[in-house]
Amino acid sequence: MRRRLRNNGLSICLFGLFVLFLAAQSVTGWHSYNSDQREHLEPTSSYFAYLTTGHFVEATFENWESEFLQMGAYVLLTVWLVQKGSAESNPLEGDPESDGEPRPSEDAPGPVHRGGWPLRLYENSLGLAFILLFLLSITLHALGGARVYSAEQIAHGEAPVSVSQFITTSTFWFQSFQNWQSEFLAVGGITVLSIFLRQKGSPESKPVAAPHGETGS
User: Fold this and answer.
1) Which of 37, 104, 118, 134 has CB atoms 3.0–4.6 Å from 108's, for a disulfide?
2) 3-state SS record for 99-152
3) Is 3 helix (H, G, I), strand (E, B) or coil?
4) pLDDT 10s digit of each residue in the chain, 217 long?
């Protein structure tokens, strides 16, 4: 058990923090939602009923959408683009070792041994996974957002909107763009900052003594 915890410490910590902060978001969002409902003389919700409201669904998947877009775009852009001196970039010259023709060792994943279309799919599975997660998240963002937007419309004596109508509004795209721009700022930040700055012991950093022009970690 101790070895398992050590070998999987990073993912356990990250997903543990995810659950913690998601729970904190849901509780604080529930109180914020009910406070707003009381101000408008509308019925409040129980905690578990709140988790099905557009308020929670929209806020949650609006953020997930931008995170998966960021990671998916980063995975794909780093296939073709390089940044001299960055720990986040492939080498400037030649093909990175990871892009070579896979040689099936004894413990290689199954698709590598099978070859053909299973291998081709597996070779691009990371980027595809993030694309699918992004599409799922933006769909749920639209579904939750349409419910919130429609409730506001009804409160102001206007007609509710469908999901397809909601995604044509400036509100939907404002919600998306305000998150997308921050995600690419963060990725651009680590790409450039890793040229000049170091973090001893981190695989996201070049060795402390590495020159600024050295590319890759």
Assistant:
1) 104
2) HCCCCCCCCCCHHHHHCHHHHHHHHCHHHHHHHHHHHHHHHHHHHHHHHHHHHH
3) helix
4) 888 888 999 999 999 999 999 999 999 999 999 999 999 889 999 999 999 999 999 999 999 999 999 999 999 999 999 999 999 998 887 666 555 666 677 778 888 888 889 888 999 999 999 999 999 999 999 999 999 999 999 988 999 999 999 999 999 999 999 999 999 999 999 999 999 999 998 989 998 998 999 898 7
